[in-house]
Every structure is written in structure tokens, then in C-alpha cells.
Amino acid sequence: MTPPDWSVWDVLLTSAVETLQTTIAGTFLGALFAYPLGVLAASNWTPVWVHLPIKAFMAFVRSIPLLLLALLFVSAVGLGPFPGVLALAVHSVGVLGRFVAEEIEATDPKPLLALQGTGASSLQIIQHGLIPQVLPQMVAHLAIRFEMNLRDSTILGLVGAGGLGFYVFLYVKQFQWQKSGVLVLAIIALVFAGEFAAWQVRKRLI
Amino acid sequence: MSKEMVIQIENARVEMEGRTILSVDQLEVSRGERVAIVGNSGSGKTTLMRMLKGYVPCQKGKVVVMGDVFPIKDPKKMKTHHRHIGMIHQHFDLIGRETVWQNVYHGRLGYVSLVKSMLGICSQRDLQICAQAIQEVHLDDKQRRFARTLSGGEQQRVAIARALAQEPTILLADEPVSSLDPALSEDIMDLLVSVCDAYELTLMMSLHLPEIARKYADRILAMKNGKIMWDGSSDLLSNDRICEIYEFMGTNGVVNGNGTRASRSAFTWPYGWQGQPLPGS
Q: Which of A46, A156, B206, B233 has the fewest Cβ atoms within 10 angstroms?
């Protein structure tokens, strides 16, 4: 892999941007569904016939390996970053939704009861009591999920779901190790940057 | 002319898991009274207040609070009932990640429509009431601080301001000074009594220390095993009666296991409320 062949910088740039875009879209699309589902999956807020099926669904989604999910979506919608986005989103729903549910279940109920005692309605209790208590952890989990998705999205290319991984695999197949080495370095740099960003978010919130 | 009754209880029973945990034969509290409820842990003080607030259902008997006959089934009526009864919780129960102002504003939620509260729209009146409540508890300079960064005494002041923002008629204080040191406890009790006088509120507070009850209440209810054992003016609660209620003996405050009454002369309150002796001891 050494010395790295920097002539692929244009491929590196476009594929790194594609990986980043896939990660952002996949994480936020997943969060869009994970948060409401997570609230519904909290056993202290919803009846058993609501939270149990949702928890089971999220566990099922989590149990499917990400690469398998990506393969399924590649065969369903074709090659490119879009199946990668879908795979990350579905996987994030399973993981993030569970974090949200657990965070809500661990909330101190006494301040919520105190809010009820002021005459607040259920939605007002959620807005003024529940969300302020769980929001920092929720955002921190989102940051961690983003970092993990960034790492995962780099290998999604192996199954044709675009991004850096796709070109790494392409150059490896052509025995162009120096070129693939440059892309591997880019993956490492991206993962470090993602981890730094998540750490910064966590530091400010918790 | 007789005073208006805000609380009327007749033969009320609260049961939990087949066991009667509260049994009140007769209790009437009139507007503006300052009532202290004393008794051991598990004597039913908190249950009585939670029942009045509507948190705990009363299975038998008649309970009328501010004209509302229990059980209150209509959610709208329950909301109004909650608004009229402010409650100060033992552990303050504030939202630690919100500011003092936001916590006090929570007291107004019962008056604000859902849409307005979702959009964060506050009426001029709400702003005025919150500002006044914060001023009453002397926290003007800390209204932008997060509640979790405040000391115990300051958090209790926020809890009082939140209850005041509800514009209540009755204020229930569940062991308001149990988490505070003696000096701070006196400050909080002075504040509580002064705001109740200023707003003509009926105050019901559960307390562990009979000395505080005597100092700050007009009337004392002494509870034991879920029943009111004594109900009268705070001046009339004798040390013998306190001994009987708390089942103490000796000078070291050792809990009497066999229920023998301690002699009045031998009784000293084990927690030493700022070294103030009991009257007549």
C-alpha cells in the first residue's frame, strides 16, 4: 500500500463527500423514525400492547447485519449511495430507538408528577418535563450513532452501496494497492474526525 | 361569622393492596389556616396530602376540597383542582436542566393552552405572575441559572415560587425542610409562612419536628398508623402527647420498642432543633 499514490485525490474527494452525505442522510432519516418509535417503545409511557411490538420490531431490525441490509437495498433500488442511506437509516432506527426508549424509561418520574400537579396536560408534561430531561442524552446518542454510521458507511461500498469503500474494493480488485492505501488513510481520517465531533457534542451536553 | 371550609373529610379511607393506610374520621380545614401534620415516617402524613392533591384515590368516605367532591373523574375538573392546590415536594422535584424562570413558569402551565405553550408564547399576565413569584422568594438575580446548579435552599425557594405561580388557594408542603440544615430550614419556614399570609393561602405541611410545627402552625394534626391521634391548637400539644405519638423513651431518643411512654421530664428531642428546649420541659 506504500507509498500512497496521491493521483487519486479527485476520486478521494468525491467519494469522501459521498460517504459523508450517505452518513448524514442515513443517520438523520433513521433518527426521524427512531425518536417517535423510541417514545412509543418506553414501557413507562405506553401500554404493553404498544411498547412490546415496537421493541420487538427494533430488536429484529438491529439483528440484521448492516452489510446484509445494504445488499438487500442494493438489489431493491440498485447500485449507488441511496441503498447505503436506506441501510444506515433502518439500522439506526433499531439502535437509536432502543437508546431513546431506555433513556425515557430511566427518567426520574417525580418532577413529571410535580408538573402534573400544576395542571399541565400530558403533552405539556412531555414538552416541559420529559424532553428537557432526556434531550442531552438523545443528542449525545445521535452523535455516537453518527460516528458509528460514518465508520459503517465506509465499508458499505464493498457491496456496491457507494462511497469510499466502493473505490477501496475496486482498486484492491485491480491490485492497485497504492491507490487503495490513500483511500484507507482517508477512511481513518474521517473516522477520527467523526469521533472528535461526537466527543465534542457529548462534552458540551452531558 | 364562620370561616369558609376549604377541606372537609368524613370517614375517608385510603387502601393499598388490601391494607388501610389512611383512615380519617373527621377533618375540616378553614381558609387561611396553617396546619402542620406531625408523626413518624409511615404515619400517613404524605398519604393524606397526596389524597387531597388527587394523586391517591380515596376508596371510602367523603372528601370535599374547594367544593370539589372526590373522586374527580372529569379531567378538566381535575386540572382545575390541581391548579388550585399548590404542592411543594420533599425533594423539590424541579426540572434540573431548565432555568429558575422556566421552572417557575411550569406553575402557569395549567392556565396556558397547549398551542401557546408549544410555541412558547407567554401572556403579559403570566410573565408578571412569574416575575412576582420569583421576587417573593428573593431569586431575582438567579432566574437565568439552571435549577440543578442551585443549593438545596434555593431549589426549595424555586419550588415555592412554582407553587405560587399556580395562584393556589391551598398550599401543601410535604416535609419542606427535611432536606435542609436547621438554619436554612428556619429561613424556608419563615418564607413559607410569610407568602401564605401575604396571599391568604391555606397551608398544610407535613413536618417531622414538633418544635417547628409549634412555631409555625396555628393547628397541629398528630398522626400515627394512618389515623389522626390529636387535632388542636399548636399551643396545646403537650410533650406527653408528643412522646406518645413518636414512641420515644429516655434522654437519648431511643425508639421505644415496646410502646412504653416516655416521661415528660425525661424527654428530649433527639435531633436537637437548634438547641431550643420544648416549652415546659
A: B233
